Amino acid sequence: AYAKVADIVTITIVSAEDLQSPTVLLGGDAATVTQGADASNWTAAKTMDNADTQGAMSISITFLDLAGNPGVTLTSSSDGNNVTFDRSVPTITTATIASNNGTDDILAVPDDIVTLTLVSSEDIQTPVVTIATQTATVSAGADAKNWTAAYIMTSNETNGTVPFSITYMDLSSNAGTAQTALINDTDGAVTFDKTQPSLSAVT
Fold first, then answer.
1. Which residue of 49, 65, 174, 199 shows the fewest CB atoms closer than 10 Å?
2. In what order do the strands lie in the sheet containing 128-131?
């Protein structure tokens, strides 16, 4: 599980007997503890902020029964689930574009496939990509930092430079700034031309 700034991380506590209100630390900070249906059921919650440390969140639960007998401090969840806190905003570090045009990969005509290759600074969820303002088909690469998006050009597209847009967020749902410019592309943009050539004169 993942958490970002302003997310609420909640831990559920069930004991074998009634307890006094337990002391719970989430990520090293005191959580707000609330009793449930009875004194053997409790929840503890913390709202994440920019001051919290990134990474796997630590857990500490200190508790006493009603007679004051201390239990063994718990430092992990019984179900093995951990929450990873991430407050970093992802970025696109590479965005290159090319077509499968037989003459030049920076040219495109109807039925050519324009492919955008992108690399992010960290693992991201499946990005939403448009090419020529149309929804592209997105495919995962070797890992969640590497993606490709492809679109088959049609006669409905406008002549000129083929625009694109990449909307994305990391695994904690931190949204990156939409990417509309090429990065590390040595060839430059793809130019689309659907205009049929004609002869002005034959003599």
1. 199
2. 134-135, 128-131, 164-167
